[in-house]
Design goal:
five-stranded mixed sheet, about 30% helix, binds nickel (II) ion
Length: about 140
């Protein structure tokens, strides 16, 4: 039997500011552009959580999507949706909330919650044209 991937698509909105406090305001503006706006700005994030594994012979599921969607809601959406990532979350108090770091953080939150015989991959769209994958 081959492994199968199942993907749950979710969505959240959040504000952020990309900023390196060790740099001058000028350098921050050059490097991060609009995402360095001092008063923050929002993104509509699309999140794809991919679970890869063998189908359970009794259920035919890799993972029950109800369990997966509840898990994403409890651990990720309730934590980040409609939040200012820099100000409202522990995770990004000292970590620049780039799409890369958000995807890695979501992976690290979900990984311990998912059976160790399943693989987890995160895809996070910051815009329709920019997305990141972790692990790639
Ligand atoms: Ni931004």
């Amino acid at each position: 039997m081959n492994k199968t991937a199942i993907i749950r698509c979710e969505h959240f909105n959040a504000a952020h500011r990309l900023h390196n406090k060790n740099w001058s305001d000028e350098k921050n503006k050059i490097v991060f552009g609009k995402c360095n706006n001092p008063n923050y700005h929002g993104h509509n994030y699309d999140l794809e959580v991919k679970i890869i594994g063998y189908c359970d012979p009794e259920t035919g599921y890799v993972i029950d999507t109800k369990i997966l969607s509840d898990l994403i809601k409890d651990k990720v959406l309730d934590r980040f949706d409609h939040k200012n990532l820099n100000l409202d979350t522990e995770e990004f108090k000292d970590l620049n909330p780039t799409a890369e770091n958000i995807a890695i953080t979501i992976y690290n939150i979900l990984k311990p919650e998912i059976s160790s015989d399943l693989e987890l991959k995160i895809k996070l769209y910051e815009t329709a044209r920019n997305y990141v994958e972790y692990p790639y």
